[in-house]
Specification:
Helix 11 crosses helix 12 (about 300-315). It is built from 14 helices and 14 strands. It has a six-stranded mixed β-sheet with strand order 5-4-6-7-1-8, with helices on both faces. Strands 12-10-9-14 form a four-stranded parallel β-sheet, with helices on one face. The protein has a two-stranded antiparallel ribbon with strand order 2-3. By secondary structure, it is an alpha/beta fold.
Amino acid sequence: MKRVVVTGIGAVTPLADNFNDSWLSVLNGVSGIKQISKFDLSNLKWKMAGEVLKFDPLTCLSKKEVIKLDSFIHYAVAAAIMASCDAGLQNESSKLASAGVIIGSSRGGIGSIEKAAVKLSGSRPKLSSYLMAATTISMAASYIAQKLNMQGNCLGISNACASGANAIGEAFRLIRRGYSKIVFAGGAEAPVCRLCIEGYGVSGALSNANDASASKPFDIKRDGFVIAEGSCVLVLEEYESALKRNANIYGEIIGYSNKTDAFHITKPSLQGQAGAMIEAINDAGIKPGDIHYINAHGTSTLIGDKTEAEAVNIVFKEQIPASSIKSMTGHMLAASGAFEAACTLMSLGQGIIPKSINLTEKDPECNINVITEKKKADINAAISNS
């Protein structure tokens, strides 16, 4: 089987309009969570989000494309182009032509769908002829392929907030099995709209706090996640291909697991989560004791954090350092899994474990080693949970 490395990363997040600045913000414990500015908050209980604010879609798309496409596609295309440049592929037309692309999204073009629904309630509704194409989840991958002239495998994945991590995992499998040499993979979301906020809110999933510290994974006062938007795309490449073109290598992906527990529509399963970690470690051909850092899913929900902590304790016999990037970004749904995988690679390469912010008093039922100050560490292998 082929070895798989990461040679490029691009991102648009609530922290910055590029990956490097986003990563620096993570290292500095900067929060991207603010009061929502993109729509009227009248009579809305939940007012905080991780919005993408420092981003101009015209840097990568024409004015016509910006108008006809949903924001989640804007973010995905921008992240993919940045990843391509970072990997040194911008002038490698033959390599891009054979490359694949897999992009995950949970909500797709929900913002554009909401705007269309509002139009329908008017006296003379006229919908865009692009509405269906521009809001479907697969269009993020499809449009990246069009913009970069990629003609390999092209997939849109929707597995809720695991979608971005699943996209990377499936790309890893394609390369490892020899089906592709290069695959762009990641996640993209633009769920900061009234329909999504209120929908998650009434389900009881969102934090009721209305300040920047609303996302507080593993804290005893956590009360839900904070919705966020953005995209992150990684360039996965077969190791020998990367060596031949002298590409920069961020790190190697050595194992992956995607596991369902057939249990409940939203409630997490302890055994399912533990099983996914065990399968990923086994797939990598290593042991739990070889893992030196856990990039936690850590959404800041009561049951989610508790179950993840319990699962970690089943798998790992020692208190391995862990942190949650969502304490700073909020929950970017599919984009979070991809961004967190990218941040995990940076931790490996730079030997730095980023801190979790907003953790004032750890919940005793979340008995894991959550890092609250960034620390230097010799990290040979890490795991990223989604």
